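Pipeline run #58 for the internal structure catalog. This entry was flagged by the ingest filter as a single-chain record with no existing model, so it goes straight to prediction. Upstream metadata was stripped on purpose; only the residue string is passed forward. Reviewer on rotation: M.T. Logging verbosity set to normal.
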Amino acid sequence: SPYLDSLHPMGYAFSYAPINPKERLQDFDFLSGLGMVAVVSAMNDGSGASLFQVVFAAQESAPLTNAIVNFASPRLPKRVVLLGGVSLKRSNGTEVKDLALVSLARTDDATGSLAVIDVSRPAHPVVLAEVTLPPGQGNPQSIVRRDDGLLAVATSTGLLVVDPTRLLLTPLPGAQHPVQSLQPIDRAARLQ
């Protein structure tokens, strides 16, 4: 039966390999609602910038050759998550965007951050903001979509909850920051 033939799967097939053999893929995400695949990568030998790249976009007619965002040292992309149709709150209203969130570790001792990238035009990704994690959280790692629309972000020292609709708001004094600590990890319990 052609439906059971692993060489001819049902639906579409897609593969990606970096052009530069020194480039190592760190992570990728696929979002079927956008028909998009994005990757984050770094150079094995430390040469060149680390990057975010849209490598497949079903609805984009323009070439994706320059659909790249570079991250200079000491920032190192670790994980990526794609989010479709996010209603971003801004000081002057709400704007709907397709986003990529990239967790950025630091190779120095500074606190890591989340890069907020607009991928509404996949061939031309634009960094909208870089949100620094709360002090003491270290570097962000994996990002997981929760059922309630919020995101869970694992960090070096805990777990954070992120409201993706609030990522572009500058918190007023005493106001809730879009990145909130959910539960710190007890290092002693982790070692047992």
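catalog note: The two ends are 51 Å apart (CA to CA).
catalog note: Residues 187-191 form the longest helix (5 residues).
status: ready for reviewer M.T.
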